[in-house]
Specification:
The chain has 188 residues and is mostly helical. It has a single domain, classed as Four Helix Bundle (Hemerythrin (Met), subunit A), CATH 1.20.120.520. Helix content is 71%, strand content 0%. The chain is built from 5 helices and no strands. Helix 1 packs antiparallel against helix 3. The protein is elongated, with a radius of gyration of 18 Å.
């Protein structure tokens, strides 16, 4: 994990935003100005749309699993099928893993070459991706449990993991956009 993760207040599940020590290294473009920027329609909008899809998927997963908690045990299997839980959750998991792979191996190294002063921010985002991978894997494990035996305990475990994923994903994406969208506005 990145050096920033040695300080628990930097952990994506615990922080309220980017750490103050990272803020001075960011590019100057303010979020309220992004959409008016002439290059916004390129990669900036594209990445923000992908991020919205990820957030919508995480929100949906947390909401549907919470709903399942109120479903009688003998009806859980039917509700899981009606909701399309397996297909939609699997899509979210694969989409999130693939997106992070592209960022980690494609975009982030390029950004660091352009802006070495963003090293701490990129290290933090890399640490976030490791935590997100663990959260995604936890959801995947619990999802399999629901399909083996859709009982109250497996449904509750899936909900806990889905709620944690939602929280982590929202924090990470907000912080990641603060770091990378200004880069896309300059080079996109």
């Amino acid at each position: 994990m990145s050096a920033d993760y040695q300080n628990l207040s930097h952990h994506v599940a615990m922080r309220d935003g980017l750490p103050n020590a990272i803020r001075p290294t960011l590019l100057e473009e303010a979020e309220q100005d992004w959409r008016a920027h002439p290059r916004f329609a390129g990669k900036a909008r594209f990445f923000m749309n992908i991020h919205r899809q990820l957030l919508d998927g995480a929100d949906w997963l947390a909401q549907i699993t919470e709903t399942l908690l109120d479903t009688p045990n003998n009806d859980v299997s039917d509700q899981v099928a009606v909701a399309g839980l397996q297909q939609r959750a699997t899509h979210l998991l694969q989409f999130a893993h693939g997106h992070h792979e592209i960022e980690d191996h494609g975009y982030f190294p390029q950004f660091l070459r352009l802006y070495p002063n963003l090293a701490r921010a990129m290290s933090l985002l890399d640490g976030d991706h490791q935590v997100l991978d663990e959260a995604l894997n936890g959801v995947e494990t619990e999802l399999a449990g629901v399909f083996r035996a859709p009982a109250r305990d497996s449904t509750a475990a899936l909900y806990r993991h889905a709620a944690a994923l939602k929280k982590i994903m929202h924090r990470h994406i907000a912080d990641e956009e603060e770091v990378i969208i200004p880069i896309f506005l300059r080079h996109g």
